[in-house]
Structures are given as structure tokens and as C-alpha cells.
Amino acid sequence: MSKRIALVLALLISVVVYLGAQVGPGWVDQYRPAAQKLITESQANDFAWQRLAEVTDTFGPRISGSEALERAIDWAVAKMKEDGLENVHKELVMVPKWVRGRESLDLIEPVRQPLPLLGLGNAVGTGPAGVEGDVIVVKDFDELTARASDVKGRIVLFNAVFTNYGATVVYRRDGPSRAAALGATAVLIRAVGPTGLRTPHTGATVYADNAPKIAAAAISAEDADRFQRLQARGVRIRVKLSMEAHFDPDSTSYNVMGELRGRDLPDEIVVVGGHFDSWDVGAGASDDAGGCIVTWEAARLMKKLGLRPRRTVRVVLFTNEENGLRGGNAYRDAHKDELKNHILLIESDGGVFDPDGFGFTGPDDARAAVTAIGTLLKGLGASAIAAGGGGADIGPAAEAAKAPVMSHNVKGDYFLIHHTPADTIARITPKQVSDNAAAIAVMTYVIAERGLK
Ligand SMILES: [Zn+2]
Fold this sequence. Notes:
The protein has 453 residues and is an alpha/beta fold. It has 13 helices and 16 strands.
């Protein structure tokens, strides 16, 4: 062999090795044609975006206990049947019925002015007289503790600037009871989200057992900063909060499911889904009709293309994620006997923006498999498999089953519109819906076909 030929051969071998590392282990190549079919079909039209538009335009927000949610659920059952999915049915879930009612926040001093607000979900009302009082502004729980003696008889504003959801949502969840324990009469929180267009965000609060239940609402970042400046100048801030919020008795709702039964191992199940309920403002498009539609679409695409995997793909649209998680718990209880056959559960509940792959929690061999499958999604920008996945709705079943979990990840301004009137389909493009549906379809199909072992 001449030196030149040896050099060319060595170069060729290194190129092949390099490409091999780029496309993943060889076994994944056998799924490339099916993956390409799913991607091509999903991108061929805006069917799924139109379906998302139909849900949000027709039914609007879908809070637990509302007629709109139940109408949307019945619509989903009918559409799943039209799609040719199998075993389509509803499963009963008793859900809490929190009702916002009318609400208002009026600044009284230093000037009279109505301010935009959103009462926190699950909050109590103020009674017809409202709650009027001076406002004390604190940036965090440490400052609340430091100024504990000033809290009694006042309305506390938690002005915690949004950094990330986990770090600031604690003020929404725990703030009202922490302040009530010190004698506060009501609580305002800076909306949990980046500064928008003077947009308050709702979301659930959780009352502790050892403190009085006081009314609580979110105000915009802009107004929270204004209060902070007024306080720094020593100006008295006085407001009146009125909220009719209350609970009606629990009412009936349902988880919806439809399947593509496995052609070979139908008792082994891959669950994909999102939650079909939403808060009562906006249209619940990103949170989480979008997640429901793209996961459902994954099964519809397989059905349409005649790609029936060996194992069962089960689409679940959970009810009551936002203020109770009763749907996720009910799924676990109703499917107790088959939990051991759940090989993976995938949830999409982070919005449908530009694809960013998946998050995964599970054993190393399963992680290696999903990482390899991810290489089929390079063209969609969805190949990354991040550390840590899961979802609120799939959590109870996955925990009981000790099954691996995935979250569908995207890049976008989810928290800008999260739980606000701005959560509409106007923020979501047909391409984003098609690309995410394609990514979920490929991931779900190959896992259901190949398994994770
Ligand atoms: Zn959600």
C-alpha cells in the first residue's frame, strides 16, 4: 500500500467514525425512514395548529369545574374517535371548583387609581366590604421576618423580582400564609413572570393550616416596583382589595384517553399527554392545550401513516392539573394494576415554542437509548436530552410505577404569558406546533417500537 493510499484510507476511516458518533449508535438507523415519514407528514400542513385554534377559540379558558372544560373534553373524545384512535374514553375525576368572581384593587393613597390584578387561584375572598389597609413592601421572606412587627393590620406586598419560576413561585404559594401568621390582613404578590405589559399572573396559592386564610392577589411587576419606590420615599401606600373568590362544591370532570394499541405487546404502554384544564384567564393555549394537542398529534400521525408500534401508545389529557392535580392522582389509582407495564411517561407542559428536545429521568441504559433516538431529531433542533424530566400530571403514576419520565422541552417566553390573559394561540406558530408534534411522534414511536431496555 502506498503512503498516499494509506493516508486516504486513514482519513476515510476517521470520517466514518466521526459521522458514526454524530448520528448515534447504528441500531437507530433502522428507524430513520419511519422518523422521516412522521416528520414529513407533520410538517406537510397546519392540521395540529388548526386543532389547537379550534380548542382555544371555541372553549376559551378551561378551569376545573367549568362547563367549558367539560365541553372541551367531550369534543376531544369525539375528535379522537374521528382520528381512529382506539379505546377512546373518559375516566371520572372529582375536581375542586374555585370561582374567581369579581375582583378589584384600588389605590387610595397617594392617589385614587384602579390597578390591574388577578386573584390567586384557590384564594379566599375578602367579603363584600373588601379589605382596606396600608401596604408594607418586602422583597423576600427574610425581609418579612426582619419587619415582622410592622406587619400586623397591614397588607403585605411581596416584591420578589422574577429570576426563575422555582425561585419566585414560593411567594405565590406560601406568601399569603407567611404574612397572615404575622397578622397581615391581605397579601399582594409581584406577578410570577418576567416584566410584561403590566400583566398580572394568576396561579395557585396554598394556605397553611396554622395561619388565618387571607385574600391574596397578584399585581404587575410595574405596579410592584412603583409601590417599592413609594415606600422608599416614605409615602403612605393605601389600597382596597375586593375579591369574591370562593369554592363551590367539587364537581365531575374526566381524564380523556385514546390509544394506538401495540401490534405485538399491547399490554406494555408508553403514555404521552398534557393537561386539558387551564386557569380561567387567557385561553390556556400554551398552558396547556398546546401540550395536549402535540402529544395527541403524535398518535394521530402514527395512525394516519400506518405506523403501529409494537407497544401501546396511550394519549392522556389530564384534568385539574392547575389547582388540584386530581387528574394525575386519579390516573394512577384507576390504572394501578397496569402501572408495572408503563415503560415510559412523557408530558408536554412547558409550552409549544421552538423545539429544544426532551428532559429525561430514568436508568442509564434507558437514557442511552433516548439519547440515540434524539439523533433522529437533529433537523428539528430537538435532539438534546437534558438531565431531569417529568411532569406534574404523569408524576403520581410514574412514581408508583417507578417508570422513567420525559418532559417535552422548548425554547420560548413561556413564563411571560403563563397564567395571564395573554396565553393565547397568537403566540404560537403553525411551524412550532408541527415541529414539536413531529419530535414527540418520533420519540414516542421509536420507544414504543423498540422499548427502552
Ligand atoms: Zn400547565
